[in-house]
């Protein structure tokens, strides 16, 4: 059997899990919405139908003071049980097991009633927590137990106690956030007492026929965090207290070290779960940046864990497991770890979704229905919007023909995949092309389709994308000025001194591309066992990660600023921080990286002229000349429309525009694919 380790059942006490795939916990922000639990039931139910072995829900708080933000979901009374039963019934009807995660935010709560072991404000919250008294600590433990009882009543097969990522239990464990001198603080044995008591009392209250998972922080990535010897000490104490499984947690949310972004090498942290597995008798789950069945299988083969946890990959493709089991891994819509529609949405209090799968968390709002009348559809433009529209239309039963004027499909995705640290876009391209072939979409390359050709179809979709806009700067036509597309596709070889006009996402990508020889990239994609350790070593050195966890918290000095020969300027007109519009959870990573590479970032720039001397400008009314070899234009985008645009109105068939052809401003992959889905469902 392909992926034989991944699909081997596992007997866990009186329960059998049908495979080794765990859909890990992730926040969706659905619980608090109207019909939120109905939407959650559809979301989890679709993944259970896809044959995942075990689902762990997003965090549910055991009491009001433990919520992450106002109005978040709490399970502290029987009145909420019926809502949760919608979820458990939807999942268990497919033979999948489901555990509810119990999460107490502690000082990470974004509200004034937060509590913690010590009154120390978190850098990611504006509130200072109240220090818990001994009596209040005992109440918190009782609330965990009650929450677990109610979860069992709701039909969950077990619970996961969230003890990592810097939430309340983790705050007790770590010296940096626990300054107590009573039985709950001080020495390590006292600091882990809270965690061990919760597990022991939940086990005593719920009995042996209830799955009890503890998410253990293997690597805190904060100062004065745990060493690995301390992690193992806690793991053994949890075993004795009655835990069934140990899940791997990596990094605190306040840590300024990337752990799940696309630039993080795949399965970077699995060596930690491997060390844990060798030291304990209960099964171990590994996690973080695992997004393909090939990588998951290899981790099991190499003994890194007993189970593989993937969260965001199930946003990208609900049928991940079923496709892998059927030997169709090339048909999996792979998570590219961009955070754009999942975590970034959560942090602005929107429901999570996925840029490569707009239906994620919207299953009830965006059903896929077979077409009532089969149409012959022409799509002009083979970028992301065009390919996605072709796929969604063909899935409904339409006959689809895709025209692309260049020699290959991909459009802007081809450029994105060339940016170091964004190699996962190659997986999106692979998925699109494989799916198009599987659905028998007719593809014509180097063919933009003329009016006569299009008139033979029932419907025409224009998805011709974007190109770089030309700013109004004297001398912009000079030979030393190049477009971002020329740079990212390798058409031009830049000199050692470069100025980049525009500091949006494209400007950051170009700066990263230019400094590529001096940066860490996740160049090794598939399969895991064929890659060497170079990427991991470079990444951990760059970000100061101690995977041995000899240093408390697993952090050490980061790499110094690059001594790269390139002299790169990243320029913007607005007086604000560079990359202000980048993703909330990843923008800081890109800024920090470019700073490490020595990129000079200038704001409040007024461009005056370009000539053979270079770029003449003023910065806050002080004139400067940047003596650069090349100027790269990243100042915006404009629509690319067919030469026969005016003639489209003469067609006797409906014509629709999507993606950049509809609107170039602020075009991204999420909007392109979302518009493709919406249009396809209306055809």
Give a short summary of the structure:
Helices cover 29% and strands 17% of the residues.
The secondary-structure class comes to alpha/beta
Enumerate how many helices there are, as a single number.
Answer: 21
At CATH level 2, the architecture of the largest domain is Alpha-Beta Barrel
CATH class of the largest domain: Alpha Beta
Average pLDDT works out at 95
Alpha-carbon distance between the two ends? 40 Å
User: What's the helical proportion of residues?
Assistant: 25-40%
> Number of DSSP strands?
27
What general form does the structure show? globular
- The proportion of strand residues reads 15-25%
Could you explain the architecture of this structure?
The protein has 683 residues and is an alpha/beta fold. The chain is built from 21 helices and 27 strands. Helix 13 (384-395) packs parallel to helix 15 (425-438) and helix 13 packs parallel to helix 21.
